[in-house]
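ok new one. same drill as before - structure tokens go in, u give me an amino acid for every spot. 420 of them this time. try not to just spam alanines like last time pls lmao
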């Protein structure tokens, strides 16, 4: 796969994955196409050597794995969720001549970039269908149906100096003029377009706003990829491609968790039981599980902060990654990243063997540090872990930037890692 082919396909994955549910659906479709067999947690498993499997939880997290004789797994970890604005259960607000949606910020999003965007809506809905069965459907409205207008500078002459954003009052997206709007009808019309007709009653939804601007290349030399949700669908996509390329007898897993942006504590998050439960069932006994964990390595992939050319003072001078200068190994003395010299050494060995560049990131000592699923999974399982990612700008903005060389380099290294 060439760099161009790789990045073109990545753009398509980003555009068709507006929510963790859609990302999980796309991941599972690609696993199916690659010949993986789906397992269900609520059923018994009979694993066959040389085969490849996947498991889904909450429609928003997925684990894929090979099943062979060896138990020294390489595990690639990533997360399916990204910060966004999520509809409240009773979202409709009618006032001042318009209909608005009441929203709740999900995760640590940068709010400013959400103003003046052409927004659409996607997620899942649970409804009562025929025969008294509760069903789930994924929805994506696709076209722009909402926007959050900025307050004009004439009405706030301090806007460029000290405007702040109130999460309760300032960010409600507007969807139409007038008052004629019924949320249930609005959802039912869209569900009909998805082929759902047996709707007795809509009970609940998990719907989020997203930017309809497509992912694309930018820069005079097309050096950059611009998109929503690069954090962390980019890593999901890389992990998935590598997983699909691995033979059934090579010890390899891919774990994509939901809920990372809100601390990972959920039914489908890295702090929950999903990975541990699946891992134990693969191994068959606690003895085999305990041995396997100590033989295996998790490569936790999540984006890193590239040095911002307009804010260089925000970076540690000797550990400030540059865009298109290589995959970033993330290190933190206080274990906000789980990398150790042991896990870093193996990664650098693979990268240098392939002739692929790497960089290291350490946050400034006078600033806080983000985290990833790496330390959480390392703590929960006791698995040796490495935190890596590709350098990006604008993390948690509605539009993030990455480099076209770095994305491909991460793919090449993980591919090499999987085949060592
Ligand atoms: Zn992330």
């Amino acid at each position: 796969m060439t760099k161009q082919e790789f990045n073109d396909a990545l753009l398509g994955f980003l555009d068709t994955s507006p929510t963790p549910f859609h990302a999980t659906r796309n991941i599972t479709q690609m696993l199916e196409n690659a010949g993986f067999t789906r397992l269900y947690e609520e059923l018994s498993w009979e694993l066959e050597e040389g085969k490849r499997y996947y498991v889904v939880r909450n429609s928003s997290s997925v684990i894929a794995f090979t099943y062979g004789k060896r138990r020294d797994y390489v595990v690639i970890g990533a997360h399916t969720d990204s910060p966004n604005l999520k509809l409240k259960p009773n979202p409709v607000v009618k006032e001042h001549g318009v209909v608005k949606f009441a929203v709740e910020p999900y995760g640590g999003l940068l709010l400013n970039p959400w103003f003046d965007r052409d927004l659409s809506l996607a997620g899942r809905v649970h409804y009562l269908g025929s025969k008294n069965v509760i069903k789930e459907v994924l929805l994506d409205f696709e076209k722009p149906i909402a926007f959050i207008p900025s307050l004009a500078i004439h009405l706030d002459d301090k806007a460029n100096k000290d405007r702040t954003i109130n999460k309760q009052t300032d960010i409600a997206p507007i969807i139409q003029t007038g008052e004629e709007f019924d949320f249930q009808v609005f959802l039912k019309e869209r569900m009909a377009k998805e082929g759902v007709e047996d709707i007795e009653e809509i009970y609940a939804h998990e719907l989020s706003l997203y930017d309809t601007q497509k992912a694309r290349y930018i820069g005079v030399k097309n050096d950059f990829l611009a998109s929503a949700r690069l954090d962390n669908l980019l890593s999901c996509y890389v992990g998935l491609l590598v997983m699909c390329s691995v033979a059934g007898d090579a010890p390899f897993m891919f774990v994509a968790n939901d809920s990372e942006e809100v601390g990972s504590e959920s039914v489908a998050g890295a702090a929950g039981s999903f990975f541990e439960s699946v891992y134990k069932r693969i191994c068959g006994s606690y003895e085999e599980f305990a041995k396997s964990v100590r033989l295996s390595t998790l490569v936790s992939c999540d984006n890193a902060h590239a040095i911002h050319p307009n804010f260089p003072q925000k970076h540690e001078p000797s550990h400030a990654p540059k865009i298109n200068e290589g995959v970033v190994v993330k290190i933190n003395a206080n274990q906000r990243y789980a990398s150790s010299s042991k896990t870093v050494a193996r990664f650098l060995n693979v990268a240098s063997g392939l002739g692929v560049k790497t960089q290291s990131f350490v946050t400034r000592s006078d600033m806080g540090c983000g985290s990833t699923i790496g330390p959480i999974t390392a703590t929960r399982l006791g698995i040796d872990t490495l935190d890596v990612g590709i350098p990006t700008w604008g993390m948690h903005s509605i539009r993030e930037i990455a480099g076209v060389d770095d994305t491909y380099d991460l793919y090449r290294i993980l591919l090499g890692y999987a085949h060592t």
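The chain has ten helices and 20 strands. and btw The chain has two domains: 3-82+228-419, 84-211.
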